[in-house]
Amino acid sequence: MGILSSNVSITRYQVMGQLAEPLMETLSRLLTQNAIVEIDDEDMDQSAGWTSFEDPFDPNFTGSSFVIGSQFIFSFRMDKKTIPSKVVNKRYRQEMTKRLKESGKEFLSRNEKKQIKEDVIRELSLRIPATPNVYDVLWNYEKYSLWFFSTQKSANETFEIFFTKSFKLNLVRRFPYTAALELLTDSEKDMLNKLTPSHFME
Amino acid sequence: MLDISVAYNRYKFIGYEFLTWMWYVIEHDSAQLNHVIPENINFTIGNRIMLQNAVHDAVETITIKGDDAGLEEGVLALKKGALVTEIHLRVTEAEKEWQLTLKGESMNISNLRLPETGQIENRDDVEGAVLEKIFLYEKIVGWMDAVYDFFLKIRFSPEWHDVIIPHIKKWILQ
After folding, report:
1. Are residue A122 and residue A172 in the same domain, yes or no?
2. Model-level pTM?
3. What is the tens place of the pLDDT at every residue in A116-147?
4. Pairing of β A46-51 and β A71-80
5. Are residues A89 and A159 in the same domain?
6. A98 and A60 share a domain?
7. Which residue range(s) make up the domain with A177?
8. A6, A198, A202: best to mutate for the B interface, most B CBs within 10 A
C-alpha cells in the first residue's frame, strides 16, 4: 500500500535522533547497504529491505532519488515464499517412496525423514517465486517525523526492527499517550501519569 | 517515560474518550472545533462506528455500519457505559472530501481516501502527484492533530469534569 494508492493506512512515528553528516551520503549508503536481497533463485523463504519508491523492483539510492520536496521517500519491501503444505506433503511422500525403493528398507529413521522434508522444502523454495509486499515510507527529517504506509501488525513490527538495525535510530509510535507527551507541559505530564478513565454515565 | 507497551495499554482509554468526545462535538457542538480548525472545515460521522463496553471481565463490542445506518444503537451502548473505539469520519473543505477511519487505542489512520487528484500520465508526473498527495495527507493529519490537542487541553482542565462530562451525559440521555 502506498502514497499514490486511492486508499491508504498510516502509522506515525517519532524518530529519536539524527544520522551522521553528510546526511545525504549517509542515508544513501545505509539504504544501499540494507537494500532488499532477491531470493527467487535462493533457498531462503523470506527477505526484507529498502527499495526505491518509484521502482520497488530495482533499488537505486543514488543522488537525490529518495528525496521529494523536503522529505525522504523510499519503500520497505518484504518478500515471502509461501509453499502450500499440500505440495510439500506430496513431494515428501514421493521422495519417501523413492528412497525406500532405492534402499530396500521397510522403514526410514526419524532423522532420514527429517532430512527428506528439509530437502523437499529447499528444492521447492528454489522453484517458487517470492511474493513481494511494498510499503512506502515518508520521513520528514527536520521534524523527526516518519509515516509508514501500513497498519498491519506484522509489517509494522518487522519495519520497526529493520529501521533501527539499518539506521541505529529508534522509532516511537504515535498513540494517545506518546502524542500527549509531545503537547503537554511538565505539570500536565504529571497529571497524565495519574490520569484515570472518566465515566460519562455515572 | 513509561515503558511503551505498558503506556499503550494503560492509556488507550484516552483515545476512546477522545473519539467519544468527538462524536458528541460533531453531533452537538461542532462550533467548538472552530477554535482550532478553520470554519469552512466540516466534520461528519461516516458509515461506521465501533464501541466497546467493559463489564466486569467481559468486553462487549458493538459495531454500527452502513451508509444509512442510524446511530441509536450506538447511543444506547453509550448509555450502558460504552466508549467509542473506532470511528469513520468524513471531512470536507469546500468541494474537497477526505474519508478516514480513526482507531482510538493506536490513533492509526486507516482507509484514508483523499479528494480527487490529477492523473499520472507519465513518469515526469510522479513527483508532482506525490507532492500533491503529501499536501493533502498533511492537511487532514494536521486537522486531526489540532483536534486531538484541543481535546487534551480540555481533558486536563477543570472544565472536563465540571462542564463537558455533564453535557455529554445530557446528550447521551436525550
Report:
1. no
2. 0.90
3. 999 998 888 888 889 999 999 999 999 999 99
4. antiparallel
5. no
6. no
7. 11-82+130-183
8. A198
